[in-house]
Amino acid sequence: MELICPAGTPSAFREAVDAGADAVYCGFRDETNARNFPGLNFTREELGTSIAYGKARGVQTYVALNTFMRAGSEALWYGAADDAVRLGADALIVADLALMAYIAQHHPQQRLHVSVQASASNADAINFLVQTFGAKRLVLPRVLTVADIAALAPKVACELEVFAFGGLCVMAEGRCSLSSYATGLSPNMQGVCSPASHVRYREDGAEMVSELGGYTINRFAAEEPAGYPTLCKGRFHIADDDGYAFEDPVSLDVMDHVDALRDAGVTALKIEGRQRGKAYVAEVVSRLRQALAATPEQRPALLDHLRLLSEGQRTTAGAYEKKWR
Amino acid sequence: MDATKLKITLGPVPYLWDGAAWRDFYFRIADCAWIDAVTLGEVVCSKRIHFIQPFIDSVTARLAEAGKEVTLASMAMVTLEREALLTRRLVQASAWPVEANDLSALGLLAGKPHLVGPFVNVYNGATARILAARGATRICLGPELPLSSVAEIIRDAPAMDFEVFAFGRLPLAVSARCAHARAKGHSKDNCQFVCQDDPDGLAVDTLDGQSFLTLNGVQTMSHTCQVLLAELPVLRRAGVTHIRLSPQHCDMADVAEVFADVRDGRIDTAEGETRLRSIYPGVPFSNGFHHGTVGADWVPPAPVAQQVPA
Q: Which CATH superfamily is domain B7-169+222-306 in?
């Protein structure tokens, strides 16, 4: 299976290539991609240089254009697609149907991957995208079990890529407006979720309170580390109980299931984390590269250390295991 | 009917209600003169379908008899083979037009006249035109879209009808995991249909006691109720043809009457708002998405003197 690695900066890109990525994915420095964070992403020139660096070492570059085109401003997305093609991207990762159509029409030779943000979670949906827009690969939303994926793979006419490690969306991707409900800014439209611009920490007695857009997302006791207020990983009050209503502050790790995913017919494993630093990228990519080559018995020792780098230092296999539901 | 008048549609009941209560709700809707069209069916969770299945034929027949345009909605998220089969069967065998709420239904409906629901991502006119070319006649736009996008999409795809979410708690997210069952100590696979205990959803407050969200099975909704009442003239001028009222656990026929009264100028917006607050008490209103800001916000209507005549 291919290892698809994140890069938010040109230096992280080089680290990912050097650490053993089969492909690196990245985006332009604007709202055309779903990691539109300050100080992150690539200028046209940086992307060209990075693609060349990868090509010289046999590593592919995928360009994420995976937000939805704002009505009236479609030219921004079309232009980004044209530029990514011109700069030699190996694949474009796209969620918006009209952007898929544009690429199929204007760049018919360009390899098209369907983003997780398109939320195609079954064979009929996937085959619709393959037949209509010529998609060659689909990134599956994190709503299916490994068994579901195994049942799905023989029924679809394209490659499948799955998220294996990093941030975990609790909600079906591309169908979540929680962030914009609290802050006015959303993954689908602005390419951000629970944006730092709307985060505030305040002390309340001995407790630390984390807020997003004025809503309390968590309260931490003095000895508890105060985590980032990602909306769906907050602590809330329901009926008579306080707790993590949707998910604990954990991240995704399905490396225990890599053999099953390979047997299921999955082509590529994706690492989330374009917002992470280059040291993190280098460490995760090289460890996962080793883990893929290792026997199942050797794997836990290789992966234990990685879990310490994860959000909340705890991980879950999420929807890939049925009991998570 | 006056071609310039906004039609009033009723969206699917988002919650799990007892089957007989669900039927009686629609029988009352059939008698409500203000509702032009009704879209119904289980959209949120396939495990709930057997609750309403025995009543769908009698409900659709009664609504059609009363002159309502009837549409059956497909599920918002299709992951299991059983759900895929249900979607295929709906597309192939439905006696009524189908509203696609996921890409599988959208694909299967190609070439047949159909509608597109708020769970399919349509953020621009180019996407609307692609859907129109495949047979879509009306799109209910997602509630996250600001007026500026709504207006631009309609300018770009003028041949279609467009519907906007004008009343109801906002559908904000859907998950493979059931937070509602989890809140009551169950997993999704052994949920014991606990969401039926909350016919208007289960409140999620912040740890500081702020009202925030609402659990509805695998769906997360807003705590606030979106209300676009003062906005009706501007929606109409933008080319919106239908407004959707999403059923809450209150008298939706009365809600429809308020919207019709404001639309037709029998009462002003302030009176309409006051009446809505008594029909659906205790739930704050929001309209922030429409105004391009925080979705939970309530942007009060401009003072009358500044309002542009319809």
A: Aldolase class I (3.20.20.70)
